[in-house]
Amino acid sequence: MYLSSTGKLISVDVSTAGSSFTHGSPKSVFDIPIFGGAAYQSLTALWDTTRDVQHFLVTTQAGATNYAPINFVQNLFPGK
């Protein structure tokens, strides 16, 4: 499995029988709304599966489509 650049979880069947390697066609499993947007979609730390691949854990924000910016001010009063 891998996460595509469009935010889709993709599955590919593979076989390593004997000394050969074969693969099937990629199949879209579902869309993953990664928290933080497209800039973070390639980071695998933002999603994971259980060992049996029956459950998925995804870092996301339920129901939100627009994110408020965070302003970080450092050294507002230098020297104090």
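^ that was protein a. below is b, sequence first then the tokens
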Amino acid sequence: MVRPAASGAALGYVQVTVEVSGTARLAWVIGVPHRGGGVAGGAASLMVAWLSSAGATRFVADVHLENAASRAVARSLGMVRSGEVVDGEERWSGAENRPSHPDPPG
């Protein structure tokens, strides 16, 4: 759950499934009123940093082809497009050792 420290109100969530191989499959959903302020990128970056410290070795996100904001989040996490598209979503992936995460929003 993504909650700013100041209010504690739920803004959305970051979901992850970690496979035995060390691949972490990420997804993020932010409520419409809270989009556009860096919430998804900040929360996903914190999750990637934590997962890296816990031993995740590869990160993957499936991003809807028309979702420019989520493409920007994936790019900010150091992911690149794979070109693989399934059910209208394109796979983005990257290895560990992400740049340090920004301060969380809020």
